[in-house]
Amino acid sequence: MTMTGCTRRLTLTALLLGIAFAMPAQAEEAYDPWPGLVQDIFNSRPMNDGSAVIGIEMPYRAEDAAIVPVTLRSKLSPGDSRRIRSITLVIDRNPAPMAAKFELGPDANVTEISTRVRVNNYTDVHAVAELSDGQLYVSKVYVKASGGCSAPAAKNVEEARNRLGQMRYRQFAREEAPASRVREAQIMIGHPNNSGLQMDQVTQLYIPAFFINQLKLTQDDSPVLSMEGGISISEDPNLRFTYVSNGARRFRAEAKDTDGHVFRNEWDVEKPGT
Fold it and tell me: For 174-195, how does the pLDDT look when each residue is reduced to its tens digit (9 = 90+)?
């Protein structure tokens, strides 16, 4: 075989190998898990365009994949008679895609929720709102981040154990007139929220999943917001939200984790403290 013939054959072989190696990556990139998630999480219920119902804000490129900020915001007009009953946050390519489901108190008028999540791969992130009309409405964003679910914890085991279940409640001043009943508050819970995909750097063994899976917030005994959480919620869960005060003097929080611990606290609304 001539040198030219060998060169041509090598070039063709390299081209075919390149195509073969590229195909899995292209197939992975082309694969869209969302239709399957609609079936698994929402029992294949119809999805309506949520662009005028629910907004989702996340950075296009995350600085830290283990603590990616996300804000969910109602876009319903003041004259709309419907209300949002629940919001489900789905991170499509995470190992456990359903990051959290938020149930909104019927009289609390929660219009905004912010938290922090882990993102494991470049992915679409969907926010699905269920309204009082029984319909589902979906919005999405695309986020470039990777490795968030397996990233080592920021705190060591001893520090995390000492802070387990500690809660803080804060309130923030708003621009509305002082007589306004709209409040903005934040709940922070000390908890490692281990994903089950993190490795102990000393033993080289995987740390078992251990996370807050339920959180209920009330003003006196009236529901404000509850969360069903999963491994995608970042270490030391943090929720910031708006709600309408019903005049209650006490704000209460109850959290449960996957090991059966129950954490409770309450604060004077006028003197939230720590």
Answer: 765 555 689 999 999 999 999 9
